[in-house]
């Protein structure tokens, strides 16, 4: 009798121990997994704008106490402009069970979206999230994606072209037909220009290799060239601006970084700031303060004036005094 009771007690104690041990180690495992969150950053390709955006993201994470390797693991991947790389990396992020995935540029986000509808995705500069079929409502995303749009102030950019190029009647636009962001802006700019009685000639390219030929032909038929935030043109911007300059044609780009690569001028968004805003979304999601479904897409209104004096001299163009003063006060002048 005594023996049986002792046996029972021992068995119960053993069972309790096992149950406890099971839950305890289980929880410890979970904690280990969650202890250091993972952020996957997928950048479409390298060009100065996207590099700036990535830097803005990194700095903002740091500023908010997320130090890579210490209390966060940042998995950065560059797809080198390649579709199959985009797919492979997106799948990898899902396998690694990242806490947040960031896509820099439209194709990166599209690829992440195809890979997961659960993991929160933050858009790092997608011009037209609705137009690109990424989300159906910028104000109420509803799913696992929100973030930042880099929609440029097109009207201000058109006004700038009119101020710098006298009697502006014909603008050329060069863009990549497969680039959703560029296509959306091209159409908007076309509509705006038409309203002001300005003719738009549109030429499309498929890759950087087309810039030389298409750019040269376009420059022959227009007074100036406008380029949207086109990822392919951005990576070949130096080439485009130099072939246009050979025919004395200025290139007005949609982004400030492209003025540094030979564009004449723009009123554009700071690409670094776009990165900062993207990083803020990431931080809030990591802190549990933001849900993608209920967080509207961030749009940035304020453009910065940037003038390329060096290019202006080369093209024999004189910026109006008022513009130069404005750029000196709150913009930037490249000398
Ligand atoms: N808007 C582009 C996209 O959605 C990405 C982008 C951001 C970009 N800034 C740019 C492209 C500057 C060219 C130049 O894909």
Secondary-structure blueprint of this entry?
Elements: H1 2-35, E1 38-43, H2 48-63, E2 73-78, H3 83-95, E3 100-104, H4 106-115, E4 121-124, E5 145-149, H5 154-164, E6 170-176, H6 180-195, E7 199-205, H7 211-220, E8 224-227, H8 231-235, H9 237-246, E9 250-253, H10 256-260, E10 265-268, H11 271-286, E11 298-299, E12 304-308, H12 309-315, H13 321-330, E13 332-334
Parallel strand pairs: 1-2, 1-3, 3-4, 4-5, 5-11, 6-7, 6-8, 8-9, 12-13
Antiparallel strand pairs: 10-12
The structure holds tryptophan.
Quick description:
With 335 residues, this protein is of the alpha/beta class.
Please provide a written account of the structure.
With 335 residues, the protein is α/β, with parallel strands linked by helices. It folds into two domains: 36-150 and 271-299, 3-Layer(aba) Sandwich (Rossmann fold); 154-268 and 303-334, Rossmann fold (3-Layer(aba) Sandwich). It is 49% helix and 19% strand. The protein is built from 13 helices and 13 strands. The chain has helices at 2-35, 48-63, 83-95, 106-115, 154-164, 180-195, 211-220, 231-235, 237-246, 256-260, 271-286, 309-315, 321-330; strands spanning 38-43, 73-78, 100-104, 121-124, 145-149, 170-176, 199-205, 224-227, 250-253, 265-268, 298-299, 304-308, 332-334. The strands form three sheets. Strands 2-1-3-4-5-11 form a six-stranded parallel β-sheet, with helices on both faces. Strands 7-6-8-9 form a four-stranded parallel β-sheet, with helices on both faces. Strands 10-12-13 form a three-stranded mixed β-sheet. Helix 2 (48-63) packs across helix 11 (271-286), helix 3 (83-95) packs across helix 4 and helix 7 runs parallel beside helix 9. The chain starts with a helix and ends with a strand.
């Amino acid at each position: 009798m005594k023996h049986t009771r002792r046996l029972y007690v021992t068995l119960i104690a053993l069972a309790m121990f096992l149950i406890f041990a099971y839950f305890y180690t289980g929880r410890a495992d979970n904690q280990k997994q969650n202890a250091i969150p993972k952020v996957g950053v997928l950048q479409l390709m390298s060009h100065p704008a996207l590099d700036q955006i990535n830097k803005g993201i990194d700095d903002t994470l740091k500023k908010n106490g997320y130090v890579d390797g210490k209390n966060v693991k940042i998995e950065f991947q560059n797809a080198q402009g390649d579709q199959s790389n985009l797919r492979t990396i997106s799948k990898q992020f899902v396998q690694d069970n990242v806490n947040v995935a960031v896509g820099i540029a439209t194709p990166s986000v599209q690829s992440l979206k195809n890979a997961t509808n659960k993991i929160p995705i933050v858009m790092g500069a997608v011009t037209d999230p609705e137009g690109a079929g990424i989300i159906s409502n910028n104000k109420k995303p509803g799913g696992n994606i929100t973030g930042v749009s880099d929609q440029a102030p097109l009207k201000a950019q058109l006004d700038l072209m009119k101020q710098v190029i006298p009697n502006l009647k014909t603008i050329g636009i060069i863009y990549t037909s497969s680039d959703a962001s560029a296509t959306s802006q091209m159409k908007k700019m076309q509509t705006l220009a038409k309203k002001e009685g300005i003719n738009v000639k549109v030429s499309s390219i498929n890759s950087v290799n087309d810039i030389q030929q298409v750019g040269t032909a376009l420059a022959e038929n227009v007074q100036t060239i406008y380029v949207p935030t086109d990822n392919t043109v951005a990576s070949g911007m130096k080439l485009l601006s130099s072939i246009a300059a050979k025919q004395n044609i200025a290139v007005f780009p949609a982004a400030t970084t492209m003025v540094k690569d030979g564009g004449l001028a723009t009123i554009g968004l700071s690409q670094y700031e776009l990165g900062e805003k993207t990083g803020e979304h990431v931080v809030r999601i990591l802190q549990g303060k933001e849900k993608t479904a209920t967080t509207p897409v961030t749009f940035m209104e304020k453009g910065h004036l940037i003038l390329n004096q060096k290019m202006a001299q080369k093209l024999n163009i004189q910026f109006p005094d008022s513009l130069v003063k404005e750029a000196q006060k709150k913009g930037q002048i490249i000398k």
